[in-house]
Amino acid sequence: MIGSILGNVRVIAKRIWQSPSVKVLLVALVLFFCVDFSFPVKTTIPYSTLITARDGSILHVFLSRDDKWRMYAELPEITPTLRDAILFKEDKYFRYHFGFNPVAMVRAAGRNLLSGRRTSGASTITMQTVRLLEPRQRTYRSKLIELFRAVQLEVHYSKDEILQLYLNLIPYGGNIEGLKSASLLYFGKPPKLLSLAELTTLTIIPNRPSSLRLGTNNAFVVQERNRWLTRFRTNHLFNDETINDALNEPLIAYRRSAPQLAPHLSRRLRAENPDSPIIHASLQPATQATAEQLVRNYSNRIRAHNIHNSAVLVVDNRTREVIAYVGSSDFGNAFDGGQVDGVRAIRSPGSALKPLLYGLAFDAGAITPKTKLNDVPTNFSGYEPDNYDRKFNGPVTAEFALANSLNIPAVALLKEVGTPVLIATLRKAGFSTIRKQARDLGLSMILGGCGVTLEEMTRLYTGLANGGSVNELHFTTQPATARPRPNQEKGVSVVSKEAAYLITNTLTQITRPDLPNNFDNSYHLPRIAWKTGTSYGRRDAWSIGYNQRYTIGVWVGNFSGIGVAELSGANTATPLLFQLFNALDYNSPNGWFRKPASSLSMRLVCPETGDIPGEFCANPITDYCIMGVSHYRRCQHRKAVFTNAAGTLSYCAHCRPDSGAVRRSYANLSPEVAVFYQSRHIPFDKMPPHNPACERVFGGNAGPLITSLNDGSDYFINPKQPADLELGCQAANDVETVFWYLNDKLYRKAKPTEAIFFKPQPGPLKISCADDKGRYSDLRVMIKNE
């Protein structure tokens, strides 16, 4: 039984295969696919670039490469109402044919023959799409090509994709193409928000774009619209109530300007995604509008001080998405360089990099918040920085130095941590200009002697708000859904969580000089951690702050690079920062940063040095420390010395008498602090001079620090009128006299704080300085004629 059935099947199959019609069909298919492969249909179209916000609203639209407003409509934007209306009007059997409708073609041919002229066409939506893709003269040869191309489209694309392509290409007069373009430019909203009356209006215009002109002939358009609405009712396409509402709806349509919001970010995203018709930016429209308005108003206020430009970047700390991007205060102001993107402009950061340096020092165990740093005049191998206010504070705590943005402690700290360490960290954090400048950077970089951008700085501070983990900022988001990104992306750890907390805790203090003097709403100070920066020559003012929710970076200055005396991070950039936080996140419900419980603990330290209390430390205070990392040094701010009963002579171990010596403690100051106190006439208990009868010469400790000249440097003099060169040193507080030697010959005896001058002679020069304890130091320089 089964064998006979199989035999019959074979016979039938053989007859079908041998049938001439089947052979013709197979040959036709082979020919079709060969031609299809050789001449594929081209659907690559230069669309206008659309920049959408996080909520899907359109921020900015650019002309296509061929200067058309041709906006790409995505499949979800083709609503059932739109689909039903366009298919009823253009191609009722679109879902059933394979690119062309034979019945319609025969009917149209018969009508045209009977009337002797072309009275109706038989073009399907697929064929019309082909004609829009490849415009040709209306000939029979062109019609055959259209038929073939229509079948190609049906083979390679779904019906929905063909309908989408058609709606993106239909003409609306002038340089407007596509239903989405017409919807935005004539009705000011996307297709999915159009009413039935508006949809019907847009479906009838492509057939007669010259006579049905929106904005100039609206009465005639309404007449034609209502005629088609009546046909929809007759064919029960929509219910009577919907049709009646559409018939009574007035037509409010006129030519609108294309959206041109967030111009700097829009141009940036377009350049980075040249082939994307729709780019979904991460901006929040309300936040962007608020930031733009505040920047514009603030810039108008400070323009009287000859300060013309500002830039702002607002980042969501949890997702690292940029929710506001203001490249300049006025994009349309060509005179002041309004089209320059201040977010990406390379500028000097001033002191804004200091928090990172202190974080690195915390992690290196070099300091804790209460560690004392010396804010005194210091020469760093020829580099002598000064503070912003040109004042010095003497020994200060690390947290005070950071909160008050003191320069000398920062430079000294960078010298201890190492410039290569800071450069490597910045390179790791994505500072591109630092990467290029690495070989030329020195200690001055911590005071602004390098190039950074507002984007890089804001990204760095976003990392501090995320426990020291720096990651790329996101300028785009996923289409439509725009789900928040989880805060689990692997970033680059620049400082530990403990160091980040210590930085945040310090930058939250409000008793500091970079609090604006004239802040309008000082009673509404936002609770944020922030740091300011002012570049050399007052060309750039920075203020970057963060709380749990946002990080906001502000730059104020002139794109031209002109400095302004009134420009400063505290009084120029910080007021705008405070306004932004008060407007965007006043009284934030997200709480504050929590102390890492694992390895950050408290300990008692000496208030004089920040070290572990020693023999002479009274009234210890508490300080944070990172367990296993922070240094564990005994405080030595005072030194035990044996003196005579009157306290006028000191003894060393070799000359101390068997009786009568008294053990006392004296301030153990570093040479630079001792010199600072002496120059400012600040009293301190100075160690008495050493016993002159002592015959023991000792030099176990370092000799005086020569601060002028600089070791290894070349000095050029005018041979006819050589200028005097100065010799200077810093000695310990037990030194009364120093001896200067030039090429091993005694030149002068002087006090440690006394400035000595000499007339140089061309050639190599060895300079030595010895103190009255036999300790010495020397350096070598080269004197050359100009």
UniProtKB/TrEMBL annotation:
<dbReference type="InterPro" id="IPR001736">
    <property type="entry name" value="PLipase_D/transphosphatidylase"/>
</dbReference>
<protein>
    <recommendedName>
        <fullName>peptidoglycan glycosyltransferase</fullName>
        <ecNumber>2.4.99.28</ecNumber>
    </recommendedName>
</protein>
<comment type="similarity">
    <text>In the N-terminal section; belongs to the glycosyltransferase 51 family.</text>
</comment>
<keyword id="KW-0378">Hydrolase</keyword>
<dbReference type="InterPro" id="IPR001264">
    <property type="entry name" value="Glyco_trans_51"/>
</dbReference>
<dbReference type="GO" id="GO:0008955">
    <property type="term" value="F:peptidoglycan glycosyltransferase activity"/>
</dbReference>
<feature type="domain" description="PLD phosphodiesterase">
    <location>
        <begin position="304"/>
        <end position="335"/>
    </location>
</feature>
<dbReference type="InterPro" id="IPR036950">
    <property type="entry name" value="PBP_transglycosylase"/>
</dbReference>
<keyword id="KW-0121">Carboxypeptidase</keyword>
<dbReference type="GO" id="GO:0008658">
    <property type="term" value="F:penicillin binding"/>
</dbReference>
<dbReference type="GO" id="GO:0006508">
    <property type="term" value="P:proteolysis"/>
</dbReference>
<dbReference type="InterPro" id="IPR050396">
    <property type="entry name" value="Glycosyltr_51/Transpeptidase"/>
</dbReference>
<dbReference type="InterPro" id="IPR023346">
    <property type="entry name" value="Lysozyme-like_dom_sf"/>
</dbReference>
<keyword id="KW-0645">Protease</keyword>
<dbReference type="GO" id="GO:0030288">
    <property type="term" value="C:outer membrane-bounded periplasmic space"/>
</dbReference>
<keyword id="KW-0808">Transferase</keyword>
<comment type="pathway">
    <text>Cell wall biogenesis; peptidoglycan biosynthesis.</text>
</comment>
<comment type="similarity">
    <text>In the C-terminal section; belongs to the transpeptidase family.</text>
</comment>
<dbReference type="GO" id="GO:0004180">
    <property type="term" value="F:carboxypeptidase activity"/>
</dbReference>
<dbReference type="InterPro" id="IPR009647">
    <property type="entry name" value="PBP_C"/>
</dbReference>
<keyword id="KW-0328">Glycosyltransferase</keyword>
<dbReference type="InterPro" id="IPR011815">
    <property type="entry name" value="PBP_1c"/>
</dbReference>
<dbReference type="GO" id="GO:0009252">
    <property type="term" value="P:peptidoglycan biosynthetic process"/>
</dbReference>
<dbReference type="Pfam" id="PF00905">
    <property type="entry name" value="Transpeptidase"/>
</dbReference>
<dbReference type="InterPro" id="IPR001460">
    <property type="entry name" value="PCN-bd_Tpept"/>
</dbReference>
<keyword id="KW-0511">Multifunctional enzyme</keyword>
<dbReference type="Pfam" id="PF00912">
    <property type="entry name" value="Transgly"/>
</dbReference>
<dbReference type="GO" id="GO:0006793">
    <property type="term" value="P:phosphorus metabolic process"/>
</dbReference>
<dbReference type="InterPro" id="IPR012338">
    <property type="entry name" value="Beta-lactam/transpept-like"/>
</dbReference>
<dbReference type="Pfam" id="PF06832">
    <property type="entry name" value="BiPBP_C"/>
</dbReference>
